[in-house]
Input
Amino acid sequence: MRRFVSFGPAFVVLITCVVALFATPAILKQYTFAATRGQITLAQQTLEADPILERLDRAIAAVAEKSLPSVVHIDVTGRRGSLRGSSGAGWVYDAQGHIVTNAHVVQGANSITVEFYDGRATNNVRLLGMDSYTDIAVLEVNPQGPVFPAELADEALPHIGQQTFAFGSPFGFKFSMSRGVVSGLGRGEEYGGAFGGYTNYIQTDAAVNPGNSGGPLVDSNARVIGMNVAIATARGSGGPLDQEDGGDSAGISFAIPLGTIIPIVDQLVTHGTVERGFIGISFAAPNDDPVRHVTVAGPDGTSRLLTGIRVDAVTEGGPSQAAGLESEDVIVEIAGSPVLGVETLRAQIASRRPGTPVHITVAREGELLDKTITLAPMPEETLVANTFRQLAIRLGMVMTDTEDGPIVTDVYPGSPAALAGFIRGDEIVSLDNRPVNDLLEFFTIAPRSGLLEGRDVVATVQRTDSDGRVFTESLTINLYP
Output
């Protein structure tokens, strides 16, 4: 019997497969479109139900609207009549129109122009005073109109993670704003333009660039917590923002904290100069880190771990001894701010004028003790010891003491010392018309003469020519030629 094979069912299956082959992508596409449309609708509903980002935008815009009227743009004309380096920034400190900026922005300036946010500009600007040790300067202007002083936070250090907003003129783009957080506290002088160990920088990741120098760093309530001073780059630890080799923002920048700014500015406004306080203690031995972590009992009976500086010795008859400090005490807080390192302690003390009472907290045998120290004047030799190395680097020459006085042993090409005409073998006889018998005298006279502020200072050196004849030369030094 012959078997018949039916091709009908197979044909139907084949047709079905072909239709599915062409129809499925269209169906999947429609499904994808529908899913995306649903995703968009759901996202829109979420944003409308909780407009948190709109509120954040409005809050950040309010920070800008409150801060910018207090920010100024600064142009500096150098000694030879041309713009020296980058422009900088500053901010209105008080109703009298005092402007705060970095000392390195205006050092060696021939003229200064200040521009306000509303477009008013004036070159009727007087440098009221500067302190190169903390990189702070105060300008006095005639704004010919109202000024809007910035609101200041309290002098205590901010907290890591706290939001920050930096203002200034990066690359000349006036009245710019950037946002970040506090990344670290208590950073040292190696990151900025000041020297002498009187720094206590706030580290932030708010984008800053050359031209941000002197601009305010504010918190989420638009209150000033610091002043932009330096950035760190891959090429080095950093430098003042207007230096050509300062680099661009790499997410690490530094600001002078308000607790250092206020005492210095108040001294400059009131007296025109800065005198430094002294508490009369010494830290640990050179090879021993003075930073200590101590556990103390809290008021509720719980334990707290604090950081501070261990007192190695207390000066006999000094302010700390009078206040009851003892060796082995650990200073954990000063003027309301935690003591995170030597820089923190030095900056808080040295920025205040002698005679000022300062409240400190020390840990002793697991307990916290509150003390009040009335500051004494800082001895000249202490100031010189903290600054001579950095000043020598800025001058660009190496000197050594001899029986005949300081002798120049090396001069770096292109440095201020080289441009002034110093050569190896020069014996320094006098500086600013005052005799120099040793390096201590040289580095004591140099700051007094106005060298750090950009003034011309005359040095007299003694040389011997190729015939053995001794003669003198007068050389004019300027740190910002």
Q: What stands out?
A: The longest helix spans residues 8-49.
